[in-house]
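sorry for the late reply, my laptop died twice this morning and i had to redo everyting from scratch. anyway the thing you sent over, i finally got around to it. pasting the sequence first so we're on the same page, its 210 residues, then the predicted structure underneath. double check i copied it right bc i was rushing
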Amino acid sequence: MKKLFTLCALVLLPFILFAQELTGIDEIAPFSEGLAAIRKGNEWGFINKEGKLVIEFRDDLVWNSAANTSINDVSGIRFPQFKNGRCMIKKIMEEEEIPIYGFINTEGKVTIEPEYLNLTEFNEGFAVGILVTKDFRGKNNFQLNIYDYKFSEVLLDTAGDIMLLINKRDGISMSKRRYELPELRAKFLSVNTLAVKSPTNKWEIRNLDL
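ok and here's the structure:
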């Protein structure tokens, strides 16, 4: 009887050891805040340090295989990662077909709705972003919806609350054919300091009281 138990245990051992095995992974990102992003095709999920998939594969996480990581905005994100408990996501505005960005938390829940045309990742609890809002004006002669758009560069916290209006922005085309990712003109340096680029492309340092 003892030999039979031992034989059964040896047969079942591989299934016990590899019950949580993940296969077919195309890319594995470094761990950040206890989680690592893993990619299958164009979808990413997150595993913990025990190798358990804790955030299911999804296609809205921000990444770019050709990212210039020296740029601190959406175009510089090489792979999804958590910073200050937030990871960036994107969706497409239905009528404009332009990407907008927000954040999820470590449970995979959306905590900051995608409403930003450009964003930094969080640093010391804050991020810089260009918020877009639109107001419906009516329809044109072709029965297409017409909107007024407003753009604000802001400093936001991890709850999504706007802590500071940095400046108003204009000159951003919301036409898909003409749209270009707008440059962030502010850099969060510390909880006490913000750098802002002037219209003459010179930087000024602003003291913060957050």
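Residues 59-207 form one domain.
thats about all i looked at so far, will dig more tmrw
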